[in-house]
Give the backbone structure.
Amino acid sequence: MTNPNNATITTVHTAEFTAGDALKIPTLRILRDDGSLYEGAVAPELDKATALKMYDTMVFIRVLDERMLAAQRQGRISFYMQCLGEEATTVGSAAALAEQDMIMAQYREQGALRYRGFTLEQFMNQLFSNEKDLGKGRQMPVHYGSKDIYYMTISSPLGTQIPQASGYAYAQKLRGLANTTICYFGEGAASEGDFHAGLNMAAVHKAPVIFFCRNNGYAISTPASEQFVGDGIACRAVGYGMKALRVDGADILAVYQATKMARDHALKHNEPVLIESIAYRLGAHSSSDDPSGYRSKEEEEKWRQNDPIARFRLWLVEKGWLNEADDKATIEALRTEILDALKVAEKVAKPGIEHLISDVYAEPIPALQQQLDELKAHIRKYPDAYPVTAGRLD
Amino acid sequence: MAKMNMLQAINNALDLAMAKDDGVVCFGEDVGHFGGVFRATSKLQEKYGKARCFNTPLTEQGIAGFANGMAAQGMKPVAEIQFADYIFPAFDQIVNETAKFRYRSGNEFNVGGIVFRSPYGGGIAGGHYHSQSPEAYFAHTPGLKVVIPRDPYQAKGLLLASIACPDPVIFFEPKKLYRASIGEVPEEYYEIELGKAEVTQQGKDITILAWGAQMDIVQKAVEMAEKDGISCEVIDLRSILPWDADTVAASVKKTGRLLINHEAPLTGGFAGEIAATIQKMCFLHLESPIERVCGMDTPYPLALEKEYVADHLKTYEAIKRSVNF
């Protein structure tokens, strides 16, 4: 651009609208429902071990979600969020990254977390907010995070991770690291101001970040059709001068391929890329939500047939890497393993009272120490009212 | 030592911090080549390159979010919000993210490297969108530190301490004093401890507490009162969060009286917090009600600024009211 407006001037002499739907973003599909490849499609290079790790992660998350939603219904944990229907989205994208690429997720990306190696015990400790939770029992269930595996702790406010991912990736670039940051968010969160702020900052400052929009059709009850009018989210990238990709989010091979390509581009050119994955949030928004109030069983049933795990399984069986019978045994074993871990975690003590004030600052400020001392004196007076901490104040 | 105005002292602090640590990066609207609308970041881009001192798009929430991300990676962003009046689009990023980053992750991650610098306060004919003093909003947020300097020496030492501090700091700069306040400032690196008030003048009849640009205002009132034979002890709070209740209480136990002066509106202002704490700590020592001389509970005016502000005359009257109670 040579003009001060940083805009290309293509002159016309008759006023003419550019239509809001002028831009059509293609959707990448590689794997058919029956496990075969689309004609002309080429599967990404995946060795057997990686493919099976991806598959095992999806299955693990499916079983974990089923088991923990049940635990919530039984009153054993306060809250839960499933990833149902989006397992390929979160696992396929995480598998395309390097281990030290930072993941900044929204909250439904347990597939990415598990792929990085978050252990069953770590999941359970967070869900039960016990003293072994890395987050010290401070956040509602599913707000996972781990420095060791480059998974940024989840924050409830929507979209706040978007400009943060831009800054994190910019810092990676300044440090000369050959790493990128992936930032997950939903199509609803893309309505937040932070989406605009973050994408524009990343584009202007050339941050190697992958913005990964999980367009799953719903923001709690609000359908995507009431969230925006444009063609999905991917088209917005073009407005920021950013490359965009759209993929079938139930097609793990397409998600993997798109994310690999985005990562390569981001690192090679120090540019952000926006990926939009088209999937369906098959479960409720959370354990506090009931989708029967805003969508039909028929609609859900239709999407249930579009199962990302079943599709990938057929491909793996076809390749001779997986055998159906083994799979059933694995799922049974997982159910038992998860239940056992749950029983252990729910008996672990809650964090000690010192963690009321730790980590607010690097060191507690004097006023906080004083408030804690006063609280301890109060609890000593009424120990029965504070059974979690009364017996271990010192 | 060199004579510097407050902007030069701040610029010098940023220069030293950037030279000392590669992780220190300065950015904000017009901060790059131009050096900021007030020139606080003057020449830093020339010296340290565009990657470490740059303009951002016009997006305060973007600036704050970007700073959070950089700090989470381990860098030390010093982000400028061009006017404190424009910090509110960044409020969510600061209050819900910056302030809670360490806590919510159980110390897996933190953004302690952050300093948000922002010019605040009136006296420049700025009306209600270039004059606000929003420190109380942030003082209500556990996890943040809030610092306000009164002169060039303080500005440099407190800013360097804020950058070195392992917690996120909001550093409000009294823009009225940017060029008006001139003083001797050491050229070398030094820090002034955060969270500590300073007794700038000893006295025995009443304690006068203020911060930032109001320190000059209360000083004028104190000089008037002294002509009436009233001995004033003057304290610069310097850190609003955490604030040094012990120093204030020790002084009030000695004088028996307290007057708090701030630019921000009275209701919900930080003076209320101080008054509540000090009456508890010093109840039996108080000779009169704690006086608050503050801005009125209106948006900051333009044409009627002189009438509105917590000036030396209102302060002088309040001193007499307190002493003659």
